[in-house]
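Morning. Coffee machine broken again, so started the prediction first thing and wrote up yesterday's gels while waiting. Chain of 373 residues, entered below exactly as on the submission form.
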Amino acid sequence: MTAKTLGKIETKYFTFAQPSHEFKLESGRTFGPITVAYESYGQLNADKSNTILVMHAFSGNAHVAGPVSEEQDPPWWDFMVGPGKALDTEKYFVLCANVIGGCKGTTGPSSMNPKTGKPYALDFPLITIGDMVRVQKTLIDHLGIKKLHGVIGGSMGGMLALQWVALYPDAVECVIPIAATLKHSPQQIAFNEVGRQAIMADPAWNYGNYYGGALPEKGLAVARMVGHITYMSNDSMEKKFSRRLKDDHSGFKFSADFEVEGYLQHRGMSFVKRFDANSYLYITKAMDYFDLSDAKWIPPQGLPNVRFLVIAFKSDWLYPSVQSQEMVRQLKMRQIDATYCEIDASYGHDSFLIESESEKQSHLIKHFLAKRK
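Came back before lunch.
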């Protein structure tokens, strides 16, 4: 018997905040129009109570799973979404939207400014994680969905999941932040700032006005290389590369002699082909400003109708498990239903995206979502 699979998934677009009805950002600035790129998997049930909203990580997009068209990037959570999988599309209506500020179909700095006929570049407004969620809520309202069965995401996606329940506690039943945090530490902010400075130091960046000309490829590649190091673990890098030299190594010189050097350069240069440098600046800044460390984000009456599953990975040193534990401590102090699971995976922060590490994660999520209060 052939296993059921997802068919062709179409990227859809929703536009709102037209002139005279612009969207008010946390900065106080009004902005519009805003187009949101999103994809859906499975079917809404009769009372529209089976929606799972998946939030992508920093450089992700709306194409979570399924075949790829010419306009789509490869799916980033294909092993998690589909018939019989953890996010079972025969039970749930799975939805994912690209965040505002991005470059994968949702309005961002590379989008055309209708007032000038040119890309926004740095005229694009500063945004926050809260703005991203409020834009998603506008989409959810447009689809006629009153309450989400679950919100789930890893890394920045986990921040978005937490922000969802902070802003709309009555609109969510299950919250699953994975490899996430309530706020960035100084070290995490520092890594993001190095990436931003690498981009802005590239002469081609031209104060953000590089559209239609040379791209700041070198700066963006270096930013990605720095970031990618933090997504891995020492053990995974040792297993994958150790100190092996490349086959074409021909003596001591300032080139990519070690396999790990060549790998990082490849990751950096492949990244510039699919991501916008200005989006990198805006989204990392939004992540740095995110701060739910004060338990005031939890309503005084608690969250009696919300359940949390908090997942961390032992080898994650970018968002170490102590940050997830603090999240659970705050919830438990308010008598909120929170389960904490720390998975012994070797791939570091990126473990939630690695199929070979997915069995425990999938099992936890599948059974958590199936349980009802």
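Residues 186-201 form the longest helix (16 residues). Going to sketch it on the whiteboard this afternoon.
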